Amino acid sequence: MSIKLEHVTYTYSPGTVYEMHALEDVNLEIRDGQFVGIIGHTGSGKSTLIQHFNGLMKPTGGLVLYNGENIWGENYPLKALRSHVGLVFQYPEHQLFEESVLEDVCFGPKNQGLSPDEAKERAKEALAQVGLGEEFYSSSPFELSGGQKRRAAIAGVLAMNPDVLVLDEPTAGLDPRGRDEILDQIAELHSVRGITIILVSHSMEDIAKYVERIIVMNKGKVAFDDAPKEVFSHYRELEGMGLAAPQITYIMHALKEKGIPVDETATTVEEARVSILKALGK
Ligand SMILES: Nc1ncnc2c1ncn2[C@@H]1O[C@H](COP(=O)(O)OP(=O)(O)OP(=O)(O)O)[C@@H](O)[C@H]1O
């Protein structure tokens, strides 16, 4: 699996007074099995970018390739692409509308042409993958907690068996426990099912903890595309883009500047703990 963007630009309302260049010359490739984070200040182009991954938006310029094929070429099966690349929007629970959780999660696979029984099997599997057991099948989506609703909505996309799951701010508006539960479930989908994950997030701590690669968007352009340690070593430039590295990065740099031999590239609390104990000879 490969999603490749070559020189992609996207302009809203071209030729009008509302013209807005949301993406400019974006080049990147997402490969099979990666866990990628996308960060960027509000308005930097993240949502516009991810909607190019499954052909929901058509670039104004440049190419989007899925497994090497131009998805906007003649006769390209865009509907099939949208099953391979599942997109979970911000606040996806607003799109829950069926009477029961199980019915809701069946909606996608039924739409793909599966029989009601097959769709039900898929839905049950997807609900299990997000940690919602049988006791939730007949619940109304409206009686679930915020985190449970979010998970049911993610299951709705998972039930279509995507190879890639793209999530726009999946933890927005949840309490700390709900956030951790969702992120742990997503990490499990990656590690156990091998699904490629693309996660848009404002939380540097979440990004540092889970992803192996970070794409930083700034004013419609890719500012950095690298491993978290590399990206966060540019913390001063990130600040210039209205972003901050994880707080632990600042602490580690301050310790290093005071002559304490810690690994200043530590980006998670656990890494920092190990490094500080080592520096203290413990
Ligand atoms: N429908 C639209 N019409 C005109 N301009 C738009 C539209 N949607 C987004 N934009 C503009 O395009 C730019 C990129 O928006 P986008 O939503 O992709 O950013 P974002 O990084 O996802 O922001 P956020 O973090 O706030 O969700 C912004 O300047 C935004 O105002």
Topology:
Blueprint: E1 2-12, E2 20-31, E3 35-40, H1 46-53, E4 61-66, E5 69-70, H2 78-84, E6 85-88, H3 101-111, H4 116-129, H5 146-158, E7 164-168, H6 176-193, E8 196-200, H7 204-210, E9 213-218, E10 221-226, H8 228-232, H9 235-240, H10 247-257, H11 269-279
Parallel strand pairs: 3-8, 3-9, 6-7, 7-8
Antiparallel strand pairs: 1-2, 1-4, 4-5, 9-10
Helix pairs in contact: 3-4, 3-5, 4-5, 5-6
Bound molecules: adenosine-5'-triphosphate.
Adenosine-5'-triphosphate binds at residues 12-13, 18, 20, 22, 40, 42-48.
How would you portray this structure in words?
The protein has eleven helices and ten strands. It has helices at 46-53, 78-84, 101-111, 116-129, 146-158, 176-193, 204-210, 228-232, 235-240, 247-257, 269-279, and strands spanning 2-12, 20-31, 35-40, 61-66, 69-70, 85-88, 164-168, 196-200, 213-218, 221-226. A six-stranded mixed sheet has the order 6-7-8-3-9-10, sandwiched between helices. Strand 1 and strand 2 (20-31) form a beta hairpin. 38% of the residues are buried. Bound molecules: adenosine-5'-triphosphate. The site of adenosine-5'-triphosphate has 13 residues, from strand 2 and helix 1.
